[in-house]
Design goal:
Blueprint (H helix, E strand, L loop, with lengths): L1 H18 L9 H11 L4 E7 L2 E7 L5 E2 L8 E5 L5 E5 L5 E5 L4 E5 L5 E6 L6 E5 L2 E5 L18 E9 L5 E9 L3 E9 L7 E3 L8 E7 L6 E6 L8 E7 L8 E8 L3 E3 L4 E8 L5 E8 L15 E2 L12 E3 L1
């Protein structure tokens, strides 16, 4: 009789173990989600332009908030680090700054050739690459002068994009031309800790044009973007991902019609475009998980999140993430 009881007990234990699912088999689903939410924080604080209006993504798993309704947003959007302000280019190529209710704070008409802009770490200054000159709306930032390591003196140069990290690191994309070498592109990295300019270029990208650089809002990770010389100047076709201001990328990642992707190596996410195979390959805003897709989809594990309600068809996605 005892042997029968022991046998039945063993079978019941095996059955119970076999019925457990998910990565944490011996705790409740609520407890598992609490653990996962600490290990995999939500992708929060993003913004994008959809149908010429600004939208705020407090959390990619929650409803999106429409910030503007006047249809004035044309290109690029930058959200402040505290998520209280947005800056974007209107259809006159003027920078418009609004609060998080959509109220216009100011319109900057004095900058006539804006190529890049973003918020300083304290959100007090909007730094602006106007043509090939840095300008500031707010207190001036102490950035080093542009340097051109590896470029022959007298060569024609042009700054195409520039960005500043939360630590004060300065990076920018230089286009140069001379009759011997033709058009060349390089990324210049100036760490705040040393002030020494280092140049990076990738010969394998010779068929593309380096055209964009942007930092993560909360780290020293950055994205370098390349365009097709025969396509739209804002539409990136591939990127290189750098972590922690390294001089060489961790990886490359193809994108489609994403103008301003943002990479965070700690979360291992890229906020950019997603080409939806279930929606005629439409372009959609997404938080793209760069790691191995999760096996257990019931837990709050990292995975790609697509905002397919905001499909932009074949257009260009202008977005930001802080």
């Amino acid at each position: 009789m005892k042997r029968l009881i022991y046998t039945l007990s063993a079978l019941l234990m095996l059955a119970a173990i076999g019925c457990q699912k998910g990565p944490y088999p011996y705790i409740t689903k609520t407890q598992a989600k609490q653990i996962d939410s600490l290990v995999h924080p939500g992708i929060t604080g993003a913004a994008f332009i959809y149908k010429s209006n600004i939208y705020y993504v407090a959390d990619f798993t929650k409803p999106v908030v429409q910030v503007t309704t006047d249809g004035s947003a044309a290109r690029f959007v930058k959200i402040s680090h505290d998520h209280s302000k947005f800056a974007y280019l209107d259809f006159s190529n003027d920078i418009v700054i609004i609060d998080n209710k959509g109220t216009v704070i100011t319109t900057l008409t004095q900058y006539t050739s804006v190529r890049a802009f973003d918020w300083s770490a304290d959100d007090k200054t909007l730094y602006i690459l106007n043509n090939s000159t840095m300008a500031y709306y707010g207190p001036a930032m102490r950035l080093p002068a542009f340097a051109y390591p590896g470029i022959v003196a007298g060569t024609s140069t042009d700054i195409l994009s520039a960005a500043v990290s939360i630590k004060g690191d300065f990076v920018y994309v230089v286009h140069s031309f001379d009759f011997n070498n033709g058009d060349t592109y390089e990324l210049v990295l100036v760490p705040a800790s040393t002030g020494t300019a280092v140049a990076y270029s990738n010969p394998d990208m010779y068929s593309y044009e380096m055209n964009y650089v942007g930092f993560a809002g909360t780290s020293q990770d950055l994205v370098v973007g390349y365009t097709d010389p025969n396509g739209n100047s804002d539409a990136l076709v591939t990127t290189e991902l750098f972590s922690n201001m390294n001089n060489y990328p961790d990886a490359s990642y193809p994108v489609t019609n994403s103008a301003s992707p943002v990479y965070n190596s700690t979360f291992n996410y890229l906020v950019a475009t997603y080409v939806d195979p279930n929606n005629n390959n439409a372009i959609e805003p997404a938080a793209i998980y760069l790691g191995t897709p999760p096996v257990f989809v019931d837990a709050n594990t990292p995975h790609t999140i697509v905002l397919n309600k905001y499909s932009i068809g074949s257009g260009i996605l202008y977005s930001d993430w802080k």
